[in-house]
Amino acid sequence: MGGRAVFWRWRRNPLRRRCDVVEACTGVAAALLIAAGAPAAGAATAVAVEHSELRRSQGTHLATAFLTEDAARAVENPYTGSIGKVLTPVRWTAPDGSTRTGLARVEPGSPAGSPATVWLDADGRLQQNRLTPAQAEAQGVVFGTVAAAGACALVLAGRWVVRLRIDRHRAAAWAREWEETGPSWGHRRA
Asked: What stretches pass through the bilayer (predicted)?
């Protein structure tokens, strides 16, 4: 009984309408797209993000910069209870010998003139901290998961729109059929 109820839209039946078959086909198509498309989108995004982050951090190197003013005192994070680094103006020498300035994360409370380790690219521009391969992989997994969920949401939204149109078509067909049949049911002969 259960198998027959699932496949009723494909059986030959005088009550089966074309919109029932279209609705069933869109359901199967949505299931296949979710089963195959979402993992593919997630994997492709994860690999792309991981490679991008690793490529971005390949051309960086460590350098020493000096604080141009005192670093602010740290404020404890009320959620984690930890004390992080603070943004402070620093000065460093680029590979071409020019002196450059920028903001870098340093230990809180450091006095002006104290050294700080920063990441620079090949042109001597200040960069964020370099990601380790494990951090790049974790970031890829997060973005891949979001991409897979987004692909599922997109397929389900498309299925919902198609089903909404089918329901409107079905309601209009029922209204037309009722207009033809309804008047003959309203008059009883005694």
From this structure: 140-162
- Can you give the pTM of this predicted structure? 0.64
Confidence of residue 178 (pLDDT cuts 50, 70, 90): confident
Alpha-carbon span 90 to 99, nearest angstrom: 11
Can you name the residues that pair with 37 across neighbouring β-strands? none
How many CB atoms are located within 10 Å of the residue 150 CB? 14
Percent of the chain with pLDDT over 70: 86
Residue 9 lies in a domain: no
For the stretch 139-166, pLDDT in tens is: 999 999 999 999 999 999 999 999 999 9
Q: What band does 1 get if pLDDT is binned at 50, 70 and 90?
A: very low
Torsions phi, psi of 87, nearest 5? -75, 130
Structure tokens at 183: 């008047």
With respect to residue 37, please indicate whether it lies within any of the assigned structural domains: yes
Q: Which residue has tokens 């300035």?
A: 101
**Quick one: 115 and 141 in the same domain?**
no
52 within domain boundaries: yes
Q: Which domain holds residue 51?
A: 18-58+131-176
Look at residues 95, 110, 129 and tell me which one is the last residue of a structural domain. Answer: 129
DSSP element (H, E) containing 3: helix 2-6
Name 100's bridge partners.
92
